[in-house]
Amino acid sequence: MHIPPTPAARLRAIKRHVWLGRHGFLATCAPGLESLAAEEVARLPEAGAVEARTGAVAFEAPFDTVYPALLRLRVAESLRIFLAQGAAAGTFPMLFDQLQRVRWALWLPTSCAVTVRVRSSKSRLRDDAGLERTLRRALQAAGIDADASGTAADAPPVTLHLHLHHDRASVTLDAGGALHLRQGDKWVSPTTIRETTAAALARLAGVTDPLIEPDLVCDPFCGSGTLISEALDALAGAAAGRARGSEALAVPLAASPAWKPERWAHARRVHGGPGALAETPSVLAFDADPSAVRAANHNLETLGYSDRVRAEVARAQSLDLGAIAAARGARRPLLLTNPPYGRLADARGSAPGELLRALLGSAAGWRFALLYPRPRDLEGADGVELLDVRTIVTGGLRNAVLIGRVHDGGG
Ligand SMILES: C[S@@+](CC[C@H](N)C(=O)[O-])C[C@H]1O[C@@H](n2cnc3c(N)ncnc32)[C@H](O)[C@@H]1O
Predict the structure, then answer these.
(1) What is the pTM of this model?
(2) Distance between start and end Cα atoms, the chain
(3) Residue 1: what pLDDT?
(4) What is the distance in A from the centroid of ligand 1 to the CA of 221?
(5) Which of 239, 357, 392, 393 has the fewest Cβ atoms within 10 Å of its own Cβ atom?
(6) 141 and 219 share one domain
(7) What's the 316 CA to ligand 1 centre distance in angstroms?
């Protein structure tokens, strides 16, 4: 479909084909976290046909669901809209023919800087460069200048994913960019985890579960404070995407002719607030690295949590979790942390397994939720009961979420 001849005709077509229709969406996530991503997708307004796939959740919804989704999704890594699904793509001419049927002009700005990401599996067409060229030809045929250059205003960035599987093609348009980014100026350390992974750990830890209801949350290896920030956001019911739409955290779909600024503003008012924190739990954060602690305090301040928690420099070896809980009268303390391991996240002063076992040795009565790839390091640790081990893959690396508790009296 070519660009409609007048702005009014384009608007009419957008209304009819974009705003009034239901669309297929894909929320991608770390493999291992599909069930959590599916839960949050299912809570989006008018979302239906929710289906967990490997590393993603597919669903259907009206276009307007995109606005609350960009604000509320916490575990999903990206949000994409299907522009084509299951298109026959046995040969390049067939693929081109199918891609020409996409109503590009209703979704993409007339002039933009398109990035194409191609993946082909179990298909005859495997030449990534040829596949990208075919997609670009279809854009050109639709009157889209996909290679515009200049500022983001003249040539807004657009990312399209072209996937072939069993000779069927799908095309998705990235709506929100990297959803793990929650603030424009986060200070990071070399071992900072993604906010999306931290959100998943906080959820699996039961931070907001009324049956668990922790009255003290402690991260003794807080790094740049990602876990504590996500836990506080979850407790406050704050929108993950509340900073989205600012210059530092642009929404790619905002350049689309289908984007409705007034609808976004409305969604921000309804779904996009910072939430409100109750008085419990108390929150504590420590790290042995002073620069990580500085980063954590900067990040907590940016998110509006500096009144609630101030990270401090401390070595885990010097912390007695039992005494910390007793001093605060905590009855349901939760250790929520991503302990050091491996080369980048080096443990200071002890081997990682030893450091963790020693810490848990002082944690009688605590529940724990760890992002830690070696559950075997906990084998035989006194009083430690592992309740759940979930393997996840983040940034291509295998990791694990370990949920458990430490029994009183070492029993
Ligand atoms: C895997 S990183 C945590 C990253 C954090 N979740 C984030 O998003 O930034 C582990 C952290 O443990 C800290 N660390 C290493 N040895 C420590 C020790 N003995 N006591 C306290 N902190 C330590 C490191 O400085 C590092 O920030």
Answers:
(1) 0.95
(2) 70
(3) 62
(4) 4
(5) 393
(6) no
(7) 9
